[in-house]
Amino acid sequence: SDGSIRLHQMTSEYPLMEWSDSTNGQPIIALQWALTRPAVFFVLDASSNIYIWDLLENDLLPVAKQTFPSENVVTMTLLGEPEKTNGLLGIALAKESGQIDIQYVKKKWAVP
């Protein structure tokens, strides 16, 4: 609820990494690991911002941020086929109006 993200290992109660205030205090609505690239995850906050984290490129801050100011995004899910190396990764965004928007992610964040 405060925008903090914690990366845990299953064998420990203490986080391996913690990013406090990663969304400028906005609650996190959804977080999902990329299906095709294990070091990348996506975060959706309550202000309809999507943050892309690539831990191989930068483990302190997100590498990109995309804002959707026109309408509230209420949830997201990632689309892709982990067994394929074609680098196709999409994000399905559900908007408050009921519309679904599908966007493709740049290959540098999708290729294994």
Structure summarized in a few sentences:
The chain is mostly beta strands. The protein is 0% helix and 46% strand.
Overall description:
The chain has 112 residues and is mostly beta strands. It has one domain. Helices cover 0% and strands 46% of the residues. It contains no helices and nine strands. The strands form three sheets. Strands 3-4-5-6 form a four-stranded antiparallel β-sheet, with no helix packed on it. It is globular and about 40 Å long. The model has no long low-confidence stretch (mean pLDDT 90). One of its GO terms (molecular function) is dynein light chain binding. InterPro entries: DYNC2I1, WD40_repeat_dom_sf. This is WDR60 protein. One of its GO terms (cellular component) is cilium.
